[in-house]
Amino acid sequence: MLHGRWTATEFQSQPALPILNYRGFPVTDETISSSCLNGLRQRDPDQWRRFARVYSPLVYEWCRRARIPAHDSADIVQETFGAVSERIDSFRRDQLGDSFQGWLWGIARHKILDHFRMLAKHPVAAGGSSAQQMLNQLPELLAESPTQNDLAQDRQLVVRRALELLKSDFEDRTWRAFCRLVMENVDAKTVANELGMTPGAVYNAKYKVLRRLREEFSELL
Description:
By secondary structure, this protein is an all-alpha fold. It has helices at residues 8-12, 34-41, 45-65, 70-87, 100-120, 123-126, 129-141, 148-166, 172-183, 188-195, 199-216. It is elongated and about 65 Å long.
């Protein structure tokens, strides 16, 4: 595989960032920038590593929602990214509403279904009827289109991971000002007093981080 072997522990270890507040955040259905997409198509190692760090926890979360054990979920993430590598050249946004995340969900959903089909064929190892029963319930667990609530959670997870990648690009005070203002919804005057800044400098910190985020993941937000 392009990215080495991931472990269940890695997927469960989420960044210690506050819950995102989307006030002032222009959220859309698109989930990957054109520059990143081009890098993936060109098999750029740096873009693949960045892509894996941002999206592997999301695929893992999808597996866990389907009630798949941690070690099997890690395997499915591996298989999903292998399929992405093979099919990335075929991804297109031909219709309104097409998104990379929706395309990725389709691949992961297929791998999850394959997992349960395999279990159902091995009753001794998988528990037989329980595996088949889970397979019968999958249409409810794995709808072709995720619910709005799941979409919101998914976006939050992806943005959180993307921000974590960019954290080291900023001075500590700039990053703290951004987190307090945007992610914790604290007013600019209070943040300014806490950090020894002017309100204008606090808003400028927000602008710097969001601009960088758009540059790196222009269609994620």
